[in-house]
Amino acid sequence: MKRFSAPRFFRGMNLTAFTMVMIFLYIPILILIIFSFNDAKIITGWKGFTTKYYVQLFNNQNIKDAFWNTMLIAGLSTLISTTLGILTALGLEYKKFSGRKIMQGLIYVPLVIPDILMGVSLALLFNFTRVTTGMFTVLIAHVTFCISYTVIVIQSRLEGFDYSLVEAAQDLGAKPSYIFWKIKFPLMMPGIIAAGLLAFTLSIDDFIITFFTSGRGFDTLPIYVEGTIRRGTITTINSLSTLMIAFTLFLVVITKRVRKIMISAL
Amino acid sequence: MLWLTAFFLVPYLIVVIYSFLSPDIYDVRFEVSLDAYRQIFAGNYLRPFLLSFKLAIYTTLICILLGFPVAYYIARAKEKLRNTLLIFIIIPFWTNLIIRIFSWRIFLAYNGVLNDLLISAGLISTPLEIMRTDLAVILVMVYVYLPYMILPLYSTLEKLDFTLLNAAMDLGANEVKAFFSITLPLAVEGIFAGTLLVFIPSLGAYLIPQLVGNQRSLYVGQVITYKIKNIPRNWPMASALSLTLLLLVAVMLLIMYYLFRKHKARRLQS
Predict the structure, then answer these.
(1) Exposure of B210 by Cβ count < 10 A (0-12 exposed, 13-18 middle, 19+ buried)?
(2) B207 with A26: Cβ contact below 8 A
């Protein structure tokens, strides 16, 4: 059978639209990279090539601290939210118990509410309970917004699960714990990895919820960057941004596997 | 589950309680007051809500208009190419949000790249003031949220059976007619999903208006944040505004759900 070819008018229009959107998506990023080598202290035209802001970047203790804070929070919240995600997804699998629908709803709700509201509500919670804001409160906040995503990603993996494998193992006399670790867990693994990656990216990227739940002296990178932009000292931000973009590209290029998992997760 | 109850539901309860208290410069006083709601009903905060609403509508519409042809193009591309094209859409979306907003500041600034280019091309003589306008806010919002529209659109268009289009055109329908009577109705699910992902977060936008917008036109997200962060604080007001925004979101979700149900029912009928 001959392959359907889109009407010529639409094909032309779509290619144009695609190209334009690509330019739209990438121009700001390209400009950022180019201007990280610009020898100027404020936003302005091209003033000559320099790498001195990269040197400044590596000598800046605040940026280093913010970087490690970000990594620490992202690592811990990925670990906790993925673990809780696995447990919740497995728990929700037993379709019979009452209140299951309410629980499923509770998992979806945070996804359809603007982030800022979660930030506000957590800020007030920490005020009400008189908890000092800092690393601990940021970690709680990050786990809270990651958890819905991890549960849903792992659930979607469990959906297509072939229970005849479990039944076969049972017939052959395998213990439940053996079945879990040898059959179920390995089959869930792609979902778990995808959930973890998603949680990690969400955590690194978050600004608004961190903004409401971090105290003075505990900055993550987005918080630090925003503060710096607001104060108008932008020189190291260009180079920092370029490194962060390079890091993203690096991940994309070297990890073909990760790429596939991310697409299936989306 | 306990986690979500403790850190998702309970905080909202506190927001509700706080919205009925009296403000203090740094904190709240535990005295019941309806002042926050009185101000909202008096319409003192109508403007930020209208602005945010307008922003969300514009952002969503432009994202649909730009996203549709792109999603269509990717869905119609050769299978091997599709994943690569998708990656190109996703990369910016993995890049840190603040960094992307910041790069627009460089691009749009008064002394920025766009103005330099336009002046040296002789198209304008004085720099355009795009930064710090509502136009800049919409532009950057579209930039940030476009992938959220393209991805769900792509996943519905990919499943679309293009032989239907062939059949329609064999039967004499022209391109435009075939598009409106077949492609578009079948893609509505994707448009709904994309709208959900773009419209709702746009209502609560803070960072983009804050970094590229104008301090004279404040959006709801900014007003709420200022009431919480800036001194004198007004946490009851922030709480009441948050709950109003939540209510607005809930109403929007219900409307969308209703429209979606209606659309499905109509499709099943025909």
Answers:
(1) buried
(2) no
